[in-house]
Structure formats: C-alpha cells, structure tokens
Amino acid sequence: MTVLSLVPGKVSLNELSSIYWDETDVELDQVCRPQVEGAAARIEQVAQGADPVYGVNTGFGKLASHKIEPQDTSSLQRNLILSHCCGVGPAVPRRLARLMMSLKLLSFGRGASGVRWALISLLEQMLSRGVTPVIPAQGSVGASGDLAPLAHMTAVIIGEGLAEVNGVVQKGVDSLKSVGLEPVQLGPKEGLAFINGTQFSTAYALAGLFESWRAAQNALVISAASTDAIMGSTAPLQPGIHGLRGHRGQIEAASAMREVLQGSEIRESHRDGDTRVQDPYCIRCQPQVTGAAMDVIRQAAGTLEIEANAATDNPLILNETGAVVSGGNFHAEPVGFAADMIALAVSEIGAISQRRTALMVDPVLSFDLPPFLTPEPGLNSGLMIAEVTTAALMSENKHLANPCVTDSTPTSANQEDHVSMAAHGARRLIRMVKNLNHILGIELLCAAQGIEFRKPLKSSKPLQQVITRLRESVPPLVQDRYLAPELETAKDLVAGGEILRAVKVKMPELI
Questions:
Q1: Is the Cα torsion angle 415, 307, 106, 46 positive or negative in sign?
Q2: DSSP for 232-267?
Q3: In Å, how far are 213, 262, 348, 364 from 508, measured between CA atoms?
Q4: Residue spans of alpha helices (H) in 109-238
Q5: What is the DSSP letter of 89?
Q6: Which of 59-63, 202-206, 391-395, 400-404 has the lowest mean pLDDT?
Q7: Residues near 511 by Cβ (< 8 Å), separated by ≥ 6?
Q8: How many Cβ atoms from other residues are within 10 Å of residue 460's Cβ?
Q9: Strands 25-28 and 3-6, sheet pairing
Q10: How far apart are CA 18 and CA 315, in angstroms?
C-alpha cells in the first residue's frame, strides 16, 4: 500500500488530488515533529499556570470568562467534543471524510496547535487501517471552525460516535478496537484544536475543485464532438484569435479542441462553399466561455492549496515567541469565496453545453440533422426530452450558483457575529458537478448520434475513439426506448474519466 508522506505547509494540489481520487494513505513527514511537540509542551505549561488562556483553562465562546481548574482540563475537552456533536443530514462520503482527516493532519503538522504527536499518530493509523468516522454533513456555518462535523470526526478518537470499518458501521470504540487501536484521552486544548478549523469546508471545496476540473476537460472533448455533429466551423479555434486576447484558459481550450478535431473528414467536407457565415455562440465562443471557467477554477485552486496547508485552529502557539494567541484563522471566508467561484464556473460550463444540445436537436439550426436526432421523427421523439432534462439541470445549477459567502448570520449568542457559510457553499458543488456531468453526458449522446448521421464521412480519430467507447455502453438510438439508465451511464462515463481516457489527447492541467 502506497503511503504519501506530507510535508506540512508544502503539500501540492497533485498530492491532495491523489488523496481524494485514490484514497491514498498519508503520514506526516517527521521533519515537523519537533515543532509539534514543542507546541504541545507549551500548552501543557499554560494549562498548569494561573493566567487564563482561551480554550486551555477557560470555557468556550461566551463562556470564555469561566476559569477551569487544571484537574478539569481533560473533562473540558471531552465535554466540548460531545456537546458539539450536533450534525444532521446524510453522512459525508468516505473519500471526503478521509480528505478531512488528512487536512487536519496537515493543520496540526504546522506545529501551532499544541496537540501531542500521539493524536497525529492515531489519525494516521485510522486512515491506514480504514477507520472512517461517520460525519453528518449539515451543521457548520464555516465560522468558529467547522464545529459540528469536526466534532463528529473527533468523537471516534475518544471512543464515542460512529465509524465505518470494511463497510460495517459501529460505535467509535468498537471500530478502533476492531483494527487494534485504542481511544485516547484528550489533553489541554486538544479537543478545541480538532474542531476549530476549516477542514470540512476545505475538503468539500477541494472535491468540487477536482470534480469540476475533470468536467471542464470533458467539456472540451464533448464540445468538439458537437461542433463536428452540426458541421460547425473550426476557424474560431485558430491560435491567432486567442493569442490576441491572451487568457490562458481560452488559449488552452482552443488548442485542445483543435487537436481533438484534427483530421475530421466531416470538417473538411464543408470547409469550402459553406453558406453559413458564423456559427451560434455556443459553438463559436466555446474557448472564450469554457476557457474563462477554467481560469476561474484555477484561481480558486490557488486559494484552496494555501488553505489546505494552513493552521486554522484557535488559539495558536507562535513558535518564535511561545505566545499563545487568540485569532480568527478558523473563519472560512477564503474557502467560501473559492467555492462560490467554482460554482459560477460549473454553472456556465453547463449553460453553454445545454445550448449545444438544444442546437443539435433543433432541425432549423443543426444543419440537416433529423429532428431530435431520430431517423423516424414523428413516430419517434428521439432525444427531445433528454434535451429538456439538460434545461432542467442547467436551471437548477443557475440557482445553486448564487453566492453563499454573502449570507452571513450571527450565531453563538452574537459572539460569532459574522460567518462565512463556506460549508454549504462547498457542499453544493458536489450536487452541481453531478448535474453538470449529466448535462455533458446527454450532450455526448447527441453529438455521437449527430456524427453517426454524417456517415460515410468520419470524424477525427480522437472523436471516433470516444464514440467507440460510448457505444460499448450505449447503442445508437434508432427507435424510442427507455432512456433513463443510458443517461446515467453516459454521466458515469464522463464523471469517471472514461471519455478522457478514450480521446487520448492531452487536456489542459489544473496546475
């Protein structure tokens, strides 16, 4: 089993992507251990002192004025975790829960949280032995940390809550013991260090980032197929056009589409004598739209890479001076902004894809393709309602793309009087990308059907490879049939990366 060694503060998006897609086991590089242990010793020293330090020997939030005696600091931390296990809703998917745990390791590894190395070691072993906490997905406002979801994650560490091991959900203590591990007793500040942080919001935002980038890559391939299906012009893909504007995403999108369409007989057949002067925007402006979305996703990626490497709990130990200082790194505003940016990009990629599907099923605009891409229109409705489905999903994503970060509300007796709403801002990305993958899957079905109507002319080799892969799972639509399972299959081919593997053309990279 491969174990990824992570250097806190220096972890790349490629490494985070591996954790997400492959559920790679992780451990912290030992280079960070001296600083981690030094901070833990400093917290132990503070806990024994007379001066009040928030969350170490005081209560929490509005209760910060309540002094806690040294002998009660462990009970304080345990009570904190139990009282904050107030999440509701569906459980966080396994790969996301593991990414959360990995991000918490990275935050601890900065050596500013004051937790013992033993807790880091336990998290690492839980990952390697397949102990995944059951974490309800709703309950965080992305303010004083993702309190509720991180509390559910932490509950397993102290033998409470629920966890899944090999598909079996059981009590936290039983899940640990089933793989030879034991729960721990939390020391001063350790419970607070676990729940103050943005790891839930950041994990979901990273998932949205990686999934949306894959969708953008698919959109380049599928939109090229749609261009050939309607016998669209490739003139708008010329590099000189995009170089004159200069945006990286636009330049790369046009380049990828040119390569995917290279050698198409369909394109060559209408290069001369085509009476159409210009294609509609959904064909002509594909690099400008999808490329701009790619640039926005990359901007969000930069924010999320920084956040994944950050120490985000409170208070923090400043190693240069040994001071234990209360601050606000747990506020997830950067993550909220990044999630809103990704949501806009996802919505726009889906919006222009939907218009291409609408173009292909419309005989007025599709350049001689049969109505709704069926050989016997009238008797058959073909892909008429599949296009309607894309319109429904596009509209849903438009609503979901409204910003979340602007929707603050005071909580915790007005102590936390401005919150980021990053948690549900990031969570909605998974739903949006799933909608987008459905939209792209339906566009792919239409494009393949359209290209096949152009026979004996052939599309490019890369696109023929894509259609061959599609036809292994979904046959051509000759007569009306029950389509819902095939729409799901097409979505899965897009979401799972099958189309990108089939095209065998290098797509733009996130980094």
A1: negative
A2: --SGGG-HHHHHHH--HHHHHHHHHHHHHHTT-HHH
A3: 9, 17, 18, 34
A4: 117-128, 147-157, 172-178, 190-195, 199-229
A5: E
A6: 59-63
A7: 12, 13, 14, 301
A8: 23
A9: parallel
A10: 31
* Cα separations in angstroms, 327 against 107, 317, 318, 324, 355: 15, 11, 11, 10, 48
User: From the centroid of its chain, how far is CA 177?
Assistant: 32
Query: How high is the pLDDT of residue 74?
Result: 85
Count of CB atoms within 10 A of residue 93's CB?
16
Residue at 62: amino acid letter: K
Q: What distance in Å separates the CA atoms of residue 145 and residue 167, rounded to the nearest whole number?
A: 29
What does the alpha-carbon distance between residue 184 and residue 179 come to, in Å, rounded to a whole number?
15
CA distances, 410 to each of 84, 142, 415 (Å): 17, 12, 8
Q: Which residues, in sequence order, are CB contacts of 60 under 8 Å at separation 6+?
A: 54, 80, 192
Q: Where would I find the H helices in 67-157?
A: 73-84, 94-108, 117-128, 147-157
**Cβ contacts of 71 within 8 Å, gap of 6 or more:** none
Cis bond before residue 485 (omega within 30° of 0): no
Place of tokens 């001689």: 368
C-alpha distance from residue 264 to each of 18, 79, 457 (Å):
35, 67, 8
Tokens at 23, concatenated = 């559920």
3-state secondary structure of 213: helix
Residue range 433-472, pLDDT digits in tens: 999 999 999 999 999 999 999 999 999 999 999 999 999 9
> What are 169's strand-pairing partners?
164
Place of tokens 């097409």: 490
Structure tokens at 124: 């690492």
Q: Tokens 């039983």 belong to which residue?
A: 174
Contact 1, 25 (CB under 8 A): yes
DSSP secondary structure, 361-427, as one string: H-TTTTTSPPGGG-SSBTTB-TTHHHHHHHHHHHHHHHHHTS-STT----BTTTTB-----HHHHHH
Contact assessment for residue 387 and residue 446, using Cβ atoms and an 8 Å cutoff = yes
Angle among Cα 204, 205, 211 to the nearest 5 degrees reads 90
pLDDT at 275 over 80: no
Mean pLDDT of the chain, nearest integer:
95
Q: How far apart are CA 218 and CA 20, in angstroms?
A: 19
Residue with tokens 């016997």: 376
Three-state DSSP at 22 gives helix
Known catalytic residues are 54
- The residues, ordered by sequence, that sit 6+ positions from 411 with a Cβ below 8 Å of its Cβ are 141, 143, 417, 419
Give the model confidence (pLDDT) of 377-435 as tens digits: 999 999 999 999 999 999 999 999 999 999 888 887 777 778 888 999 999 999 999 99
